[in-house]
Amino acid sequence: MDYDTLLLDREGPVGIITLNRPPAHPFNYPAMDNLAKAFGDLENDPAIRSIIITGSGEKAFSAGFDIKSFGDPLNTWIGRYGHILFRRIECSAKPVVAAINGFALGGGFELALACHFRVMVNNETAVLGLPEINLGIIPGWGGTQRLPRLIGRTRALEMILMGRRINAQEAYDWGLINKISQPGEVLTDARDYAGALAKRAPLALKAILKAVVLGLDNNMAAGEEIELEGADMVKQSKDAKEGMLAFAEKREPKFTGE
Hints:
2-enoyl-CoA Hydratase, Chain A, domain 1; 6-stranded mixed β-sheet; 16% strand; alpha/beta; 4-stranded mixed β-sheet
């Protein structure tokens, strides 16, 4: 399938979605639809085990909501669309790595927050922020919920209420990103993460992601039940047997997702 607003590539077990509405890759209706369909293509492809989302060029990951194309940013349908799509990414059974190659603002930052891992280039243009307050509106695609869960209430409120933007070093110090990348290396670093994840047992990855994401939505007791459910599911799998056998034989396991 061809996409008008993004590029979709497969590199072995890694799928790469590159947002491509230069120079800032903002989201309009086609861009949202393209992202949903491309992500679905990779989710439903059994050969793909991990996913990278990035922006083309060296300036922007995404500027987020395109007011000129979308119209009213307070439109309830638009907000619901973003919530559904980004929650789908967050709840994916396949780990998703955001390769933040430039600034990620508003909805672009909210997309990165929905990913499981984040690597970010360290340069003058690469900043993260939720500037909606400056327009008299609020983040509408999950930013008020995911950011506090990742960096704590105090720092999140400072970013959201003050419209503060932070660079890669601050994001790393606050635990918001996994790795600081040097210019030109962000996609390479993201490939390293995605490639390593693609070698893990798919069923175990799925169970862990479910336990962590849904566990954070519930109390401790409910989270433990989700964990136990996942443990019961994977312990009878062929991958579990292969993992144990490979350990005993002192070799690398070959997981098949069965």
